[in-house]
Amino acid sequence: MPLDYTPLELLFDRIDSLLNQDGSATKDELSLVFGEHAAEFLKFCDRNGDEALTKEEFVAGIKADTADMSEEDFKADWVDRMEGVVAAAEASRAAEAPAAGADDELTSKVSVVRPGDAEWEERRARWNRFSHVVETRMIVSPSSVEDVVTVVNWARENARGKLGVRGGGHGYFSSAEVVVDMRAGFGYASVDQETGVATVGMGQTLGELDGRTKPWHAPVGVVSHTGTGLLLTGGVGYQSKSRGLSAQNIIQVTIVTSDGQVRTCSKEQDPDLFFAVRGAAPNLGIVTELQIQCYKQPDALCQLRAWPLTEENVKRVFAWSEQDSVLHNTNLTVYVAFIPTPDFSAKLVALDTVYVGPAEEDDAIRALYAELDGTGEMVLLPADKRVEWSVPQTLFDAAMGDMWWYMSQLYLPGDTPVPAAALEAAVAHYDQVPMDLNALLIFEQRGSVTSAKNFEYAVNECAQPHYGQRWECYPFYAAKEEHHGDLAREQGRAAKEAMAGAGFEQGGRIHLTTDEGGKPEYFYGPNAERVRAVVAQYDQARVFASCNGMDF
Asked: In the chain, what are the helix, strand and coil shares in percent, each to the nearest 5?
């Protein structure tokens, strides 16, 4: 007698209701429901994770694997066991579901945008376009600290699903059911003109912040449409060698924790919280404001050059970067990147250098740049004059646009040059990257532990540690079109594996990918245990402990 597959069809409908209710499910989505049983239940499925299965395809795949089974075995090994797993997933989802009317209750207290509202599509737009099985159902826009307290109390009192915070630009907020968008009420900044200490609201991009504090500038990142959340997760940029990381320049943080308390922390006040919030803020609460030391930095001497991607050119650029007059000049920052040409027809190695020291040294810096003259270079930005600070801060904005991004981070242990074998491995990998991708393999010179300001701070100064590393590597691989998304992930992981096999270690600040590196040990290294303890102390209600792709 033929097996009856109707129960599996009904189970698929229940699974679909747990997911997106669109009549299909990807292998990745099914795996989340099936948990530890995924490999067994989906052994018929050799598709990529983002390719959706219909109910008919799901059942047909199981049919092919079970056609020779007895009815008794089929019921026991497939129907009953799958029923148990799906029922458990339904129970878990029910436990997390918001209480009836809870969303309406919040809507009556704070400005909220929901599906169907005129602003919905614009407000839910994501910088990293990779979709997630958790669909955003509500975007909350607090206009005051009191509103933030209301949101946090609501999240604590009602099963909140996943909660995320948008601080202005990039971020992990796209994977949250409820997004707290800080832009409406916290896009402000002011500077004490005597001390250079800025008071910064956590609802703006770095470019907006820079414009509001001018001529003072906080040590920030190198892409202007990044949000101010970067300040709390390390923050590396053109002032790092001379001023330290963003997090190392933070003086005070105001945060609403899961008990609804507004806390102000600093080295003197709540020092454990101050330690952890500079690196692990998304898992501790919602930061509304911080104070950060700024510096007067009116202009810069920059150059951007590029060469065809060859081992010879790559080794020449790195050798130039390693000389003492570059490495130990704390006002001179170096980035080396493997990039495609703007028309995606060829591959280049690019050298981006930004000098932020006194103008009296400009001629000496230009002489350093001139050492690379006549080597087949293309000069994309000449160092013939100083430029406004906004120029280097926006130079790579276009390359870091809204796409399907895979991002990770590695570091080379110790205060040492990048070995020739690692450069060769990097070139060999990048040579085979398809031109369909906006693939950026970036090497950042952090400076030497003997001279760079960012290494003057102890490893446990804040949650985000340093490892005494001279060089870091960032595989930032993006697909311009959705159907190449899996290719971006595949090639980004291949880049990481290539560099890990050549002496680099995995670990760092990047919080922008959902499928790996979610353990605190990956991001916080030797500080992970202390961060866990602080999260446990300040988030006893566990409103934030699993936010931002982490698992505390």
From this structure: 40, 20, 40
